[in-house]
Amino acid sequence: MRINGVEVTGSEALLVLPRDKGDIPIKAVAVSISEEFDEKCPVPVAPMLQTKDGNKPDHNDKDFKVAMARRADMRFALMIVRSLEPSNIEWDKVNVDMPATWLTWRDELQKEGLSEVECNRIVGLVLEANSLDEAKIKAARDNFLLGQGE
Amino acid sequence: MARIEMRDVTIYIQDGLAGSGNLSANGTLNDVTLNINTVVLNTAVTDAVPIGARLYLDGETANTVHTVTARVPDSVNTTNSINITPVLGAGTYNSGNAEGAITFINQRIEIQVGEGNLTWTEAKEYEYLRERGDLDTVKEADEQPVEMSMEFVYEYIKTQSGQTITPVDALKQQGEAAEWVSSSSDLCEPYCVDVLAKHCVPCGTDEDEDVLFTDFRYEGLDFDTGDATIAVSGRCNVSEPTVTRSTDAEC
Which domain-ending residue is among B105, B120, B154? Predict the structure, then answer.
């Protein structure tokens, strides 16, 4: 697909972690995971209360609240794992087909020698690829307008 | 002993689901989703986990009972993963050994009673034998099933799985209770359920009391959602209910 003659591609971001034995390039791309995530990790269901006034889900149930918070964490973990696919990381535990493994991505990277700060930078990289950075948008707009002026 | 107030009684209607399985991926604290395999249940499709199934994991420290709220795929086919509530507690969940073992137990609905009554009758029949007209000895005649009836106004009916299962659905194995399993050990017998009346003593040091009516089949049923009343009567395939007293963690 092209827009105004420009081929549409996903947003990308690159981070290179310096190492004596060879720098480690980490590449992240923008991903759309909503459909996959909903399929693999269905929305938690609140307990149902049937009263004489009708049926109503018990959204104040503490277990339900914990499950919802946990699901948000899992969604972010899947986004990280999917975004980092161009980096060709050979995961030992993380398996996109097994939701229970998604949250282990950080543990696994740290176990292999990445520091906590480096993992946080990877999170930043994924966010950079998957979100609209105002500074980047402004730079792109300025660049575009500059080209039109020529 | 304190007088039993029905408002301190919670009634559970529960099926006979049982079976086992295993984690196919290691679990961690606060997990909602469990990847599972090698599931064997006493259901029609033995590896399809019903939504509403309850389970506990060998690796969990607190031995919490969890309820299945969703499954993938969402059909009566081999289940690959399940969502549970509450989330996993502290423990060691290694899929490669016994810590990953899952035990499935009954599905149930919880009825919070407002006011009403629960009665049951145990009957014993004896045969008095005579010798030359004088009473001589006694022998036990045929066992008689427990007759049980309950009639109450409910505050609410709760399903932890989020399903809308009414007591009628549970008693008839219909609607969202279609995947319930008869509580009888002989699945060729007509469908039945267990009814558990849990009396939670709200004060003092008296122990809580559970009265379990095993293999109950209703013979009369009156359910009114408008007035939130239930009246049900029937018989159990046992000669007496199982009564236990303990400090019940669920109370």
Answer: B105
Q: What is the CATH number of the domain that holds B230?
A: 2.40.30
SS3 content of chain B, % helix, strand, coil (to 5): 5, 50, 45
Mean pLDDT, residues A51-71:
87
State the CB neighbour count (10 A cutoff) for residue A76.
17
Q: Say how many CB pairs under 8 Å bridge A and B.
A: 106
DSSP calls for B11-69:
EEEE----EEEEESS-B-TT--EEEEEEEEESSSSTT-PPTT-EEEETTBTT---EEEE
pLDDT in tens, B195-238: 999 998 877 777 888 999 999 999 999 888 788 888 999 999 99
**Residues B124, B96 share a domain:** no
Interface of chain A toward chain B, CB-CB under 8 angstroms: 39-52, 55, 57-58, 61-64, 66-67, 70-71, 74, 93, 95, 98-101, 103-104
| Yes or no, beta carbons of B156 and A44 under 8 Å apart | no
Q: Give the β-pairing of B81-85 and B126-131.
A: unpaired
Q: How far apart are CA A128 and CA A131, in angstroms?
A: 6
Residue B32, chain A, CB below 8 Å: the answer is yes
B128 and B99 in a common domain:
no
pLDDT digits (tens, 9 = 90+) for A35-54: 999 888 878 888 999 888 88
Question: Hey, are the CB atoms on A42 and B162 less than 8 Å from each other?
Answer: no
Has residue B199 been placed in a domain?
yes
Same domain, B120 and B205: yes
Is residue B152 located within the same domain as residue B221? Answer: yes
How many domains, in total, are found in chain B? 2
Q: Which of A144, A149, A150 is nearest to A3 (CA)?
A: A144
- CA neighbor of B91 nearest in space, from B54, B68, B62: B62
Residue B30 φ/ψ, nearest 5 degrees:
75, 10
Domain boundaries, chain A: 2-144
The reply to whether B63 touches chain A by the CB within 8 Å rule is: no
**Residues A48, B225: C-beta atoms closer than 8 Å:** no
ipTM of the complex as predicted? 0.71
Which domain covers residue B36, as residue numbers? 19-105
Flag if B81 and A98 touch (Cβ within 8 Å): yes
Q: What is the DSSP letter of A79?
A: H
Q: Which of B238, B228, B223, B153 is nearest to B192 (CA)?
A: B238
